[in-house]
Each structure stands twice: as C-alpha cells, then as structure tokens.
C-alpha cells in the first residue's frame, strides 16, 4: 500500500504534509469523510465503509485505544499544545490548507449535517411555536409579576361589601354589582400582575356615628401596606367603578410619565377656589411653591377633582413617610369632634381641609385630569356631556366611577351598561370583522326590503 | 499493514474546534464593540444623572448650624427687659457660632388670628426655618429664660449621639403623670427630630430643639392647624402639643423626651416643675414661667439671675 498511515507530526507540532495524502481510511480525520475519489487505489473498501459508518462519531472505530472521549481529546490536546506555544507560521498554513481541502471536497459530512440541521431547525421552530402557544401567556405573566415587570409594585384596593347589609337590605342587584365589580378588578389585576385587595367595609361599631363614622379608608390602606410589603403604589377604587380598558397598564397610563400626566398647581382646575400657592410669609420656598419641588419622585398621592372638588373614589397613595404621616393625621379626634357634622363626605372633606390648612401636604399631592382614572357617567356632575368630567367613548377612558349612583340613579344598570360597552370596545379583531359584516348584511337586507315595498 | 499508532491529529479542524480559532480576529472586533458600548452606556448614564440632578430643585440639605429662635413680645414687655434677654442669647450664639433669630409676636398676629398669642411660637420657628434653610437645628427658647451655662455647647450638652441616647426618657407617660401613651422604649438618636421636656403636668413647649427637615414641617403645620387653635384648649398650644403627641404616633416616634433640667429648668419660686425639674447651679438654662404673666413689662425674678449671669461672664473674661 502507498501509505499505511498519516505522517507523524513535526517536533514543532505541525504536519509535514497536509492530510491530502490519498491513503487508507485510518488517516481519515474526524469530521471528514473520504470521498470515493480520495480512496487509495488499492481500495481498502472495508475501512472506507467503516469510516463512513462511523461518521456520526466521526472517528475510525478500529482504533480501540482511542475510543474513549477523553483519550481522544488528550491526544488532540497534547498534539496541539506546542503549536500554541511555538507560534509556528507553518502550522497556520496547514490549517488553512486543511480548510481549503474541505471545500474542495464539496459533499462532505457537512452536506448531511446541513440537511439534518435544516430539519432540526424546523423541528426547533415548530417546538418554539408550540411553546409559544402553550407558555407565552405564562411567561408574560411571570415577567409582569417579576421585579422587572413591576406588577407587584401596584396593589388595587377595592372597597366591597359596603355596610355589609347592616343598614339596608342587600338585594340581588347589590350582590350582582359586587360580584361584577370584583370580577372586573380581578381580570385587570391578573392581566398585569398587580395585587388585588378586596376590602370588606362591613359596618363596624368602631366606625359608627360619633366614633369615626366611615373612616375606615385609612385603616384599610394601612393594612394593605402591611400585607404587601413589596408594593409601592396603592390604588383605591370604590365599589361602583368599572375598569374599561384592560389593555392599558398603570405604568404606561400614568407611572412612566408622572411628570407630564400630573399637575400640582391646583389653579389648573380649582372648583373649590383653594388659595394656591400659599401666601404666608413665614413658610419656606417649598411651602409656597406653585409646583412643589417639581420632582416626580416626591409625589405621594395622586387624585382627581370632579365638579365639586376632590374625589377619593379612585386615587393612588405611595408607600412613603409622607403617606404614613397623612394616614396618621387624616383622622384626629379634635378635628372630628368639631367637624363631623359638617364633613359630609368624611375623609374626602377632611383631606380637602388638610390640603388647605397644612402646607406640608401640598408638594406631595399631584392631580390627574379627572378622566384619566375617574370618568363620571352622565348624571353625575350634570346630565349634559362635559368632556372634562364625563366618559368619552372615542377617547377610550380607562375607568368609570358611577359616583353617587345610589342617590336616585340605578347603580346596576349603569355598571351593566358600561360593562357591555367595555366588552364591545375591546372585542377581538375577528369579532369586529364579523360585526361589520353582519352590519352591512343587515343594512343590505334592510335596503332590499325597502325596495321590495 | 500496520496501525501501530493511532492517528495523532486531524489536519482538518473540527467543526466544534473551529470556534476557538475562528474568532481570533472577531474577538478583537467584539472587544472593541463591547468597549464602545460600555463607554456609550456609561456616558448616557452620567448624562441622565446630571440632567435629573440639575432639573430638580431640592431644598438644600441642612448640614450644620444651630439657630436660636426667641419670640419677643414688644407690646407687653419693656425694652430694657427684652434687651437683657437679647444680650444673653447673643453672647451664647457668639461663643458657639450659632445664629440668632429674634421674632416679634406682632409679626404673626395675622397668622394666629383670634387664638391666644402664645401660638405665635409655631409660625416663628417655621419662619426661622424658611430664613435659614441650611441650618440643621432650631432651638426655640422662651424669652422668659436665660442661658446660665453658656460654655456648654448644644452639641456636647444634648445633640451628641451617645449623650442624647443616654438621657432620653424611655417608656414614660407622654403626658405626666399617667397618660396611657408612653414614649418608645427603643428610641435611637437617628430617629429623633424633636427634643422636648415635660413639666409636672404637660409637655412644655417653652424650650425645644427641632431638626430641620420634612418632619419639622409636618410637625409644625399639624400643630398650627386652625382646628387646634380654635378648639379652646385651656393651655392653648401646650395642650395642642399634648394632644398631638398622644394621638399621632408619627410625631411621637420622632420625639425624644429628656429630663426637664437639661433644657428647661424652672426657677425655684415657680410652680409646676417636674420632680427634679428645679434649677440648680450649673444647669444649662433657667426658665421663669411666672414672668409670662407679668403685668408690668418687667420681671424681677429674671433680673436677679441676669446679674448673676453677668457677673459670671465678667469673671470668666477676667480669668
């Protein structure tokens, strides 16, 4: 035979000649398949066949001594080591040559591997697609709950079971309102990974008349702050509210743009005619500032004003020292004793009062345009449509608050109607297509019948 | 044929092995790309940092300095009486580099309205804070008091951490003698924003030290609330203070009560000091509560101690 085996390596580590040598299969390098042309004329067909069949492992199987992975690697490593140290130019040449040789051969193992690779690639794609279908929502949900998504920084506090039927009989409508309202917040909180705290506002002795009547808001918020130590913002929602837009996150709606969504200068909309900024000469610059310290990080309370003043049907509080102080000073027995017959709206009036009389509060209070979190239905704050106050369908307002619906209006009908509207506005693309098709069909049929007449 | 030795080394690089060789030049590219990205990111970070820094107006951080707030009532007291009090404060401020803020009750008449005149101390302290935003401590001292041990600095006397923590009254009734609300038993210096004393039946606002900051604003504004001022507390702002301390834990948690003689020792003849609250030689301050009620515009009781203080000062200067 011409050459029984490949030449020995040079002491420096290179090869005396490239592996082109037409030789037996045993010189077949790993990962390189000898094409028929490169076979020795003597045609050691068994070796070639064996080599071919071993392509998967890529190593001649007859070299029993090197069958183990480690011994193979050891060989290779030890054979290569000098070349790294020696920096012999010849070595690199050989390497290049080897690669060129590869290409020259065209259909090597790569041909097969490529085909394999392609099918694997498609298999992988398919698996990815399946995974996307099955797990994508879970992944999104996990992300939104994680510190990166920031969902846990928000807690929705929903007041429910107001009075708990102690004062008035709780009928089927009241139960339906409660079930629906809770379901609505649950959907929204689940979608964005927020926490939902359904507060039971059952009438209790300690909140009864002459003894902090209806003043549980502060206590409930404090409790929620203890219960969710990771949360930063707490969103109070009255029971008679409806979140219309599930696809709008609080972050994108408000909290990523605090500085341009919020105004601190109450003169922008001031139904109570509160004097702002405070004129007292003994106050510091912060106390007399028009816009507080203009730092969005110092905002600790976000609320809206309706046509009669502050509205606490939907507002945000941030966990902070400032908030602790507010919750602490919000209810005071000496103030309560003097004002409880005058403060009809309890803590809402009390907060209005504190905002006016205690300068430390102002710089941390930010106002949102009413319709951003607290749109009113027609009937609250006047019947005719007022774009500052009332829900606007074309703008897709986020939250509707049926404020005052228990006084002469029908809470259940209002909630039901807004629920239907929200479902209609947020139906899928397919449903929209179907609807428009149905609509055009109907109008066509209508036209037909008219023609028929 | 013999296969004496196994093949040593493949001349063709492995698909897997290539990865270690191929990126030799790429690795350099990657390195430069990474470096550039890092540089750009850090510059962006710095820029954003600077931008946010310069765009917000924050109250300057109070670092050091003490302002002594003395509220003078020129309508009720003679100028000679007032000048003695002023001289006493000015001497003390000069010794330790403190600032004096002499306020006049009449300036705040509009603020406290129909409420008793003693409420004026609250806006006066707020005013001092507005005028000295970089000062750290505001020491309100009644005009009917003299600093008898002027060598003592406030820092070594009370404000020093270990000193303060050793004298705080822990787990005592907030309002003596038997309020069910008691001071915290684990009060630390870093939580203290207000240092205060009690007399025999109330918290005594005649002499207190308030640390500049959000708490001070909150505390003073809450205290000065119109609904407290109009409530007809028998002792006006003193009872208002008692009330706030017992009902609002966010205030109490930042308050340190210290024994009366550290800040507010009553003169021998006055009524109502706490047990061991009467002045003894060497005490920091002497208060003359009776002088507040003086009808003549002068107060002989203070006069006597003023002379004592003068003599002591003189002998110190001579020595």
Notes on the protein architecture:
The complex is a heterodimer of chains A (453) and B (319). Chain A has 453 residues and is of the alpha/beta class. Chain A has two domains: 25-105, no CATH class; 150-431, Alpha-Beta Complex (Spore Coat Polysaccharide Biosynthesis Protein SpsA, Chain A). Helix content of chain A is 43%, strand content 11%. Chain A is built from 14 helices and eight strands. Chain A has helices at residues 45-53, 69-86, 89-105, 109-145, 172-192, 216-227, 250-253, 258-261, 321-330, 333-339, 347-357, 370-373, 411-425, 429-452; strands spanning 154-163, 195-202, 233-237, 241-243, 301-306, 309-318, 365-368, 399-401. Chain A has a six-stranded mixed sheet with strand order 2-1-3-6-5-7, with helices on both faces. Chain A has a two-stranded antiparallel ribbon with strand order 4-8. In chain A, helix 5 (172-192) links the parallel strand 1 and strand 2 (195-202). In chain A, helix 5 runs parallel beside helix 13. Chain A is globular. Chain B has 319 residues and is of the alpha/beta class. Chain B has a single domain, classed as Alpha-Beta Complex (Spore Coat Polysaccharide Biosynthesis Protein SpsA, Chain A), CATH 3.90.550.10. Chain B contains twelve helices and nine strands. Chain B has helices at 15-21, 23-55, 79-96, 109-112, 121-131, 154-159, 161-167, 214-223, 226-229, 236-247, 249-252, 300-318; strands at 66-72, 99-104, 137-141, 145-147, 194-198, 203-211, 255-257, 265-266, 285-287. Chain B has a six-stranded mixed sheet, sandwiched between helices. In chain B, strands 4-9-8 form a three-stranded mixed sheet. In chain B, helix 5 runs antiparallel to helix 8 (214-223). Chain B starts with 14 loop residues before the first helix and ends with a helix. Residues 13-20 and 53-58 of chain B have low confidence and may be disordered. At the A-B interface, helix 2, helix 3, helix 9 and helix 10 of A face helix 5, helix 8, helix 9 and helix 11 of B.
């Amino acid at each position: 035979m011409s050459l029984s085996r490949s030449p020995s390596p040079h002491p420096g580590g290179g090869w005396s000649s490239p592996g082109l040598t037409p030789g037996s299969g045993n010189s077949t390098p790993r990962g390189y398949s000898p094409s028929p042309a490169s076979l020795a004329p003597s045609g050691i067909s068994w070796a070639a066949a064996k080599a071919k069949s071993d392509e998967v492992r890529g190593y001649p199987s007859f070299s029993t001594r090197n069958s183990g992975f480690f011994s193979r690697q050891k060989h290779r490593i030890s054979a290569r080591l000098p070349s790294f140290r020696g920096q012999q130019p010849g070595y690199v040449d050989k390497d290049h040559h080897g690669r060129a040789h590869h290409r020259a051969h065209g259909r090597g193992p790569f041909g097969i591997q490529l085909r394999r690779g392609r099918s694997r690639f498609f298999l992988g794609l398919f698996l990815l697609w399946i995974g996307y279908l099955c797990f994508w929502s879970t992944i999104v949900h996990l992300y939104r709950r994680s510190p990166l998504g920031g969902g846990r920084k928000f807690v929705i506090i929903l007041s429910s079971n107001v009075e708990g039927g102690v004062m008035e009989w709780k009928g089927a409508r009241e139960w339906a309102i409660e079930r629906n309202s809770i379901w609505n917040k649950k959907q929204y909180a689940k979608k964005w990974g927020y926490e939902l705290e359904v507060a039971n506002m059952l009438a209790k002795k300690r909140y009864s008349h002459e003894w902090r009547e209806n003043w549980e808001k502060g206590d409930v918020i404090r409790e929620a702050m203890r219960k969710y130590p990771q949360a930063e913002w707490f969103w109070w929602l009255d029971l008679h509210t409806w979140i219309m837009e599930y696809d709008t996150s609080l972050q994108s709606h408000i909290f990523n743009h605090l500085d341009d969504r919020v105004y601190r200068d109450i003169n922008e909309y001031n139904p109570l005619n509160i004097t702002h900024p405070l004129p007292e000469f003994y106050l510091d610059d912060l106390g007399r500032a028009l816009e507080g310290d203009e730092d969005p990080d110092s905002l600790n309370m976000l609320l809206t004003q309706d046509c009669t003043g502050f509205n606490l049907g939907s507002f945000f509080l941030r966990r902070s020292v400032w908030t602790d102080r507010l919750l602490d000073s919000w209810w005071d027995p000496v103030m309560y004793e003097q004002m409880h017959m005058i403060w009809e709206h309890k803590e809402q009036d009390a907060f209005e009062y504190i905002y006016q009389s205690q300068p430390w509060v102002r710089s941390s209070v930010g106002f949102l345009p009413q319709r951003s979190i607290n749109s009113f239905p027609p009937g609250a704050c006047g019947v005719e449509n007022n774009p500052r106050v009332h829900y606007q369908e074309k703008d897709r307002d986020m939250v509707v608050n049926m404020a005052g619906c228990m006084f002469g209006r029908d809470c259940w009908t209002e909630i039901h109607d807004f629920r239907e509207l929200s479902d209609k506005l947020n139906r899928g693309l397919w449903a929209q297509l179907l609807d428009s098709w149905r609509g055009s069909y109907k109008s066509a049929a209508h036209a037909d019948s008219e023609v028929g007449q | 044929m013999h296969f004496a030795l196994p093949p040593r080394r493949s001349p063709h690089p492995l698909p897997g092995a290539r990865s270690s060789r191929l990126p030799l030049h790429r690795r350099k590219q990657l390195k430069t790309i990474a470096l550039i990205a890092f540089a750009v990111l850090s510059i962006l970070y710095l820029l954003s940092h600077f931008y946010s820094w310069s765009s917000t107006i924050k109250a300057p951080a109070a670092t050091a300095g003490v302002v002594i707030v003395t509220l003078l009532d020129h309508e009720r007291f003679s100028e000679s009486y007032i000048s003695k009090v002023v001289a006493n404060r000015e001497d003390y401020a000069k010794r330790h580099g403190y600032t004096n803020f002499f306020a006049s009750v009449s300036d705040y008449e509009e603020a406290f309205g129909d409420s008793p005149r003693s409420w004026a101390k609250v806006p006066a302290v707020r005013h001092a804070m507005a005028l000295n935003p970089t000062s750290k401590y505001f020491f309100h001292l009644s005009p009917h008091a003299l600093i008898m041990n002027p060598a003592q600095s406030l820092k070594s006397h009370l404000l020093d951490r270990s000193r303060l923590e050793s004298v705080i009254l822990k787990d005592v009734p907030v309002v003596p003698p038997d309020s069910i609300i008691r001071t915290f038993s684990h009060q630390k210096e870093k939580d203290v924003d207000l240092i205060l004393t009690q007399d025999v039946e109330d918290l005594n606002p005649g002499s207190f030290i308030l640390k500049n900051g959000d708490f001070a604003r909150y505390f003073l504004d809450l205290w000065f609330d119109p609904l407290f001022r109009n409530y007809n507390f028998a002792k006006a702002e003193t009872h208002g203070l008692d009330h706030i301390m017992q009902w609002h834990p966010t205030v109490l948690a930042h308050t340190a009560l210290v024994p009366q003689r550290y800040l507010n020792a009553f003169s021998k003849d006055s009524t109502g000091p706490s047990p061991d609250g009467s002045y003894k030689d060497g005490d920091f301050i002497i208060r003359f509560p009776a002088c507040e009620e003086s009808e003549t515009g002068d107060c002989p009781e203070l006069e006597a101690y003023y002379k004592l203080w003068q003599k002591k000062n003189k002998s110190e200067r001579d020595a």
